[in-house]
Amino acid sequence: MTDFMLPSIPGRLRWKNQPLDWNAGDGTRLTITASELTDLFVDPSGIRPVDNVPSALFAPPDRSFLLSARVAVDFASTYDAGVLQLRARDDVWAKLCFEYSPQKQPMVVSVVTRGTSDDCNSTVINGREVFLRLAHTTASTAFHYSLDGRYWHLVRYFSLGASNNLLAGFSSQSPTGKKCTAFFSDISYTPGTLKDLRSGE
Questions:
Q1: Which residues contact 123 (CB under 8 A, 6 or more apart)?
Q2: Cα–Cα distance between 172 and 120 in angstroms, integer?
Q3: Under 8 Å CB-to-CB from 11, ≥6 apart: which residues?
Q4: C-alpha separations of 15 from 12, 57, 85, 172 in Å
Q5: pLDDT tens, 125-156?
Q6: DSSP type of residue 49
Q7: Does the chain have fewer CB atoms within 10 Å around its N or its C terminus?
Q8: Are 118 and 110 in contact, with CB atoms under 8 Å apart?
Q9: Are the beta carbons of 15 and 23 closer than 8 angstroms?
């Protein structure tokens, strides 16, 4: 797949796994369509790990940074999702998802993987879009969501440990369906950190 640039991202985005379709918009937009049975998950029960989601990833040039986007998803099947991803290694990564639950509700879901995945459902969203953000520092990472892109709520606070080869970016998944399209808009990358990772300010 062809590497590409977005003016709002400070580095080339490279594909890990091929999307069914994709489109880069006006500098702050990206659309990714995942094909059937695509997921990124290491089941704690010992089921074989899956890592076949189409992911557009870049190497952040800063040790501390914020990455955010407005995420909308064409939900059709359980676990369809648009995702912000942070990857240290193939077995050490985290993702923040706008995902379709088994109860047929859009919700914010986070997964942190250090060998095996720790999966946590968070908040039901009454709508088809939400703002997602990851705030990374040298010591820790915070996931947040927002309904308006201004007031942020903490989803998860964790650490992936030290990494010299960190990647961040965007993906779409359809673990049980035939395909899923995720729309990322208002994409923003900012060097630095928040005053308080827990409050989101």
A1: 107, 108, 145, 153, 155
A2: 18
A3: 58, 59, 60, 61
A4: 10, 6, 13, 12
A5: 999 899 999 999 998 999 999 999 999 999 99
A6: P
A7: C
A8: no
A9: no
Q: How many other C-beta atoms lie within 10 A of the C-beta of residue 35?
A: 20
Write down all domains in the chain, each with its CATH number in brackets: 14-190 (2.60.120.200)
Q: For the segment 11-53, what is each residue's pLDDT rounded down to a tens digit?
A: 999 999 999 999 998 879 999 999 999 999 999 998 899 999 9
123 has a pLDDT exceeding 90: yes
Residues belonging to the chain: 201
Give me the chain's average pLDDT, please: 95
Strand partners, 172: 82
The per-residue pLDDT for 176 is 97
Three-state secondary structure call for residue 7: coil
Q: Where are the alpha helices (DSSP H) in the chain?
A: none
Cβ atoms 76, 180 nearer than 8 A:
yes
Question: Which single residue is written with the structure tokens 């890592």?
Answer: 51
